[in-house]
Write a structure and sequence with these properties.
- The chain has 88 residues and is α+β, with helices and mostly antiparallel strands.
- It has a domain at 24-72.
- The protein contains 1 helix and 3 strands, in the order E-E-E-H.
- It has one helix spanning 54-74, and strands spanning 24-29, 35-42, 47-52.
- It has a 3-stranded antiparallel sheet.
- Strand 1 and strand 2 (35-42) form a beta hairpin.
């Protein structure tokens, strides 16, 4: 099957971030000598790698931070309940 150069490929993926996950980072040079970095997550069930030039990785990191801040502001973590007569 021939590809259509006027159409972009599309792929939708959901990556779930958990606080107990360890991410591996690496830096490397592409074949053309350009510096790249990668973040990798791997388990027995799944893995993913995000790769890119430093500027692109910084832009993604900024978007992730904005997302976390928006979520914290929109849905603040509930505070511990106050029970009268009990010292906390």
């Amino acid at each position: 099957m021939q590809s259509d150069p006027t159409r972009r490929s599309a792929l939708s993926v959901a990556l779930l971030a958990n606080t107990g996950i360890g991410y591996e980072v690496d830096a490397w040079l592409a074949g053309d000598g350009q510096a790249n970095g990668s973040v990798r997550y791997h388990t027995d069930r799944a893995w993913f790698t995000i790769q890119g030039r430093p500027a692109a990785l910084r832009k993604l990191a900024q978007a992730l931070l904005r997302c976390a801040e928006l979520t914290d502001q929109t849905y603040p973590a509930p505070s511990a309940p106050v029970v009268e007569g009990v010292a906390g």
